[in-house]
């Protein structure tokens, strides 16, 4: 029996009521909480004889590209559940878009057949002349979620569909979810009330967002145990949904078109994984192969028929990108999916880092995390910033403004820089310090802590002070500041040289309060992060340079034959051309967007590919060939001075091996059109014979830029890195389980300024509050 507790507030009474029910009836604990990492999902993966139930049972979550109404879909779900009851199988629910008749899922044919003036006519968003609006990417129409009648139709339909699903599935997946509205997709001429007049866009967007929330609230109320998993949505949606998919962030970061530091991206993921209150937490991250070329060559309409199987296989071999995304996701505590998306789903790839394909027991082999991500590589170069911790007052930092109505003040508040912006319609505000020095071609790391009273986006740059004010280093303009203190690391490559560089933060003109502290600017790159798990560790190099780090102890690599230790693919547009080559558009059989072409013989022409080899050893050299009978049978290819023959007229589509060679640091491949016929310059690739996961025992690792690795403890029974026991979130009395006794400890300290697990302060915020209760609740029964 627990001691009687006197409750002195209505809030405590509410918590007691809820928790008493939990203790009495039992709480369905997070099914992923004890499954360990990696946690992986399959989004819209196809099901066929090559990817059977054994395959999908190896995932924590499988989101079917199906409404789940067919018997075959139900049988597939049952087969997966039979092999792994913990795999959650979801079906797709169409809520945001309005599927065309005979196309897509969850059709509402009455909307498409409706006459003007009828309630159903308003359920598809139209412009002011009555034309149905569609987005340009997917050619999809959108449901009018601001209309109560239309929302009722959707909710009633989905409730009925779920009731008829017979318990074969665990939840639903919903695409294209956010609270920003529809005008960004459909434009500004939206006539939601179909009166022939464009509506106020702010109202349309607000009504759409409110409609999305209303639908999720009603579905959650109707089915408390149903998993609701969304592609998109802000953190406060975690009141109603189990998690969201971050579809673009890691892909854009690796494609260098995002402008946000890795640490901020991971913070975004972590916010969702930590704020989720509904079990199981399905917050997930998608990553793709190198999509810079892919998105230029394919689109959502043509890729399904245009992409060749050989291309699909090759895209799947971007192992470094796969590892980077997987380890990034584990740093944030989420689930991971690697695919060709967003243009094409269902690649059904499997990687050694996931575990053993077809063996459910290998799922989550690393176990639980036992600490938070740590930056373990340090930069030793001097800090160029003066008074970056603001311990000496405001100088030499200052605020600059432009615009007659812009007002901004700068002072020191609680030991940190505080900039208050009054708000204006035009102009700018910057926070800066002179002078820093940079040298073209070198890398520099800017680290700082920041927060704002409301979430906002800011930028940072290095410019020459005075004169032309030209940029001296690459800039970032999409760094998001949050309401809590966040540590940022941003790597900048100098594009100019100068000793008079200004370190400058662009703050915008929106009204608000912004805080800075611990600003440091150093030459060099750190960027290696580590996180420990029960059965091993993960490391990630987020920077642009190779990094070698000494490990905290001896580990063992995974043992797999799939990924090479190193590979490099170079397309012809990166080669050095000499002579009269023609540059032609590449076909769907050929790599990239362009090819080089020349008629042989031509002794004065060449095409040179320069490879960087970080690991000395034996490499296979391969040429991408899309054979045609008119192409040359005797292309001379020189590999570090050794000539070999390449026949481009015969054989299968794909890589043709030119032999194995020993390389050290560099390798040069040169096409010489010395034979006859048409010579094509396309992609070449070098692939190490050595494997990335070779099972070796290591006490240091070398990581290439934007790469990562998973390592195992050398002693499989090892559970911690130190004699200190692993703390289970919510376990206030440290007895190894989260139960009612821990709840009583939390309750006895509720609303008190107390810190530490032993007092019920499970998030170490210094105060025992509702957030700590949620941590206890999510881990109850573990």
From TrEMBL:
Query: PROSITE patterns attached here?
Result: EF_HAND_1
Query: What domain of life does the native source organism fall in?
Result: Bacteria
According to the UniProt entry, its GO molecular function terms are: hydrolase activity, acting on glycosyl bonds
- State the UniProt keywords alphabetically: Hydrolase
Its BP terms in the Gene Ontology are: polysaccharide catabolic process
| Pfam families membership | CBM_4_9, Golvesin_C
Ranges of residues in domain CBM-cenC: 384-491
Golvesin/Xly CBD-like domain location: 573-687
Please give the InterPro entries that the UniProt record associates with this protein: CBD-like_Golvesin-Xly, CenC_carb-bd, Dockerin_dom_sf, EF_Hand_1_Ca_BS, Galactose-bd-like_sf
Record flagged with keyword Hydrolase: yes
Query: What protein name applies here?
Result: Uncharacterized protein
């Amino acid at each position: 029996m627990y001691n009687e507790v006197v409750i002195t507030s209505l809030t405590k009474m509410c918590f007691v009521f809820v928790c008493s029910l939990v203790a009495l009836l039992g709480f369905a604990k997070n099914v992923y909480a004890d499954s360990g990492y990696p946690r992986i999902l399959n989004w819209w993966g196809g099901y066929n004889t090559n990817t059977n139930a054994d395959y999908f049972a190896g995932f924590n979550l499988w989101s079917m590209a199906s409404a789940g109404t067919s018997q075959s879909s139900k049988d597939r779900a049952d087969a997966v559940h039979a092999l792994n009851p913990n795999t959650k199988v979801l079906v797709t629910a169409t809520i945001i878009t309005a599927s065309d008749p005979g196309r897509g899922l969850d059709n509402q044919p009455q909307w498409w057949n409706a006459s003007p003036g009828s309630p159903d006519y308003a359920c598809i968003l139209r412009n002011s002349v009555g034309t149905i609006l569609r987005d340009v990417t997917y050619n999809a129409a959108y449901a009018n979620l601001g209309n109560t009648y239309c929302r009722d139709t959707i909710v009633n339909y989905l409730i009925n569909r779920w009731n008829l699903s017979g318990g074969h599935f665990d939840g639903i997946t919903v695409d294209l979810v956010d609270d920003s509205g529809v005008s960004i997709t459909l434009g500004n001429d939206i006539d939601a009330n179909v009166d022939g007049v464009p509506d106020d866009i702010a109202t349309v967007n607000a009504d759409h967002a409110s409609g999305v929330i209303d639908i999720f609230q009603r579905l959650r109320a109707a089915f408390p145990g149903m998993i609701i998993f969304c592609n998109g949505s802000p953190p406060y949606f975690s009141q109603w949904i189990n998690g969201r998919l971050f579809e673009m962030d890691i892909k854009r970061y690796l494609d260098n078109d995002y402008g946000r530091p890795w640490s901020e991206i991971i913070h975004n993921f972590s916010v969702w994984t930590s704020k989720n209150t509904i079990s199981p937490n399905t917050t997930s991250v998608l990553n793709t192969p190198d999509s810079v070329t892919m998105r230029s060559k394919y689109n959502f309409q043509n890729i399904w028929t245009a992409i060749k199987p050989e291309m699909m296989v090759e895209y799947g071999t971007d192992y470094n990108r796969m590892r980077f995304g997987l380890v990034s996701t584990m740093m944030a505590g989420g689930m991971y999916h690697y695919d060709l998306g967003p243009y094409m789903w269902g690649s059904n790839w499997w990687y050694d880092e996931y575990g053993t394909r077809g063996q459910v027991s290998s799922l989550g082999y690393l176990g639980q995390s036992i600490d938070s991500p740590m930056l373990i590589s340090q930069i030793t170069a001097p800090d160029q910033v003066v008074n970056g911790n603001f311990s000496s007052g405001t100088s030499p930092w200052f605020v600059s403004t432009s615009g007659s109505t812009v007002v901004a003040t700068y002072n020191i508040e609680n030991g940190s820089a505080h900039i208050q912006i009054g708000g204006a319609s035009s102009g700018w505000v910057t926070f800066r310090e002179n002078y820093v020095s940079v040298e073209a071609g070198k890398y520099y790391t800017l680290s700082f802590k920041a927060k704002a009273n409301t979430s906002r986006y800011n930028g940072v740059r290095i410019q020459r002070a005075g004169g032309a004010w030209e940029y001296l280093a690459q800039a970032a303009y999409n760094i998001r500041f949050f309401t809590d203190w966040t540590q940022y690391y941003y790597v900048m490559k100098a594009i100019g040289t100068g000793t008079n560089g200004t370190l400058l933060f662009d703050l915008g003109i929106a009204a608000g309060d912004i805080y800075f502290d611990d600003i440091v600017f150093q030459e060099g790159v750190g960027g290696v992060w580590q996180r420990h798990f029960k059965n091993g560790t993960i490391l990630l190099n987020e920077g642009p340079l190779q990094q070698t780090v000494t490990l905290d102890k001896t580990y063992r690599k995974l043992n797999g034959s799939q990924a090479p230790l190193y590979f490099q693919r170079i397309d012809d547009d990166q080669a050095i051309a000499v002579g009269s080559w023609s540059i032609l558009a590449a076909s769907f059989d050929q790599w990239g967007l362009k090819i080089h072409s020349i008629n042989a013989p031509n002794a004065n022409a060449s095409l040179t590919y320069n490879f960087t080899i970080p690991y000395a050893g034996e490499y296979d050299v391969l040429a991408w060939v899309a054979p045609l009978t008119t192409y040359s049978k005797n292309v001379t290819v020189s590999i570090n001075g050794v000539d070999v023959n390449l026949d481009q007229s015969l054989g299968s589509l794909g890589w043709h091996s030119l032999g194995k060679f020993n390389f050290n640091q560099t390798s040069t491949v040169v096409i010489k059109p010395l034979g006859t016929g048409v010579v094509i310059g396309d992609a070449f690739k070098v692939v190490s014979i050595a494997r990335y996961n070779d099972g070796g025992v290591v006490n240091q690792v070398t990581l290439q830029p934007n790469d990562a690795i998973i390592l195992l403890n050398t002693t499989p029974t090892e559970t911690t890195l130190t004699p200190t026991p692993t703390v289970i979130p919510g376990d206030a009395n440290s007895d190894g389980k989260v139960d009612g006794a821990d709840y009583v400890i939390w309750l006895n300290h509720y609303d008190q300024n107390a810190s530490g697990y032993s007092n019920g302060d499970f998030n170490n915020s210094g105060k025992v509050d509702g957030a700590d209760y949620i941590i206890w609740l999510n881990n109850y029964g573990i």
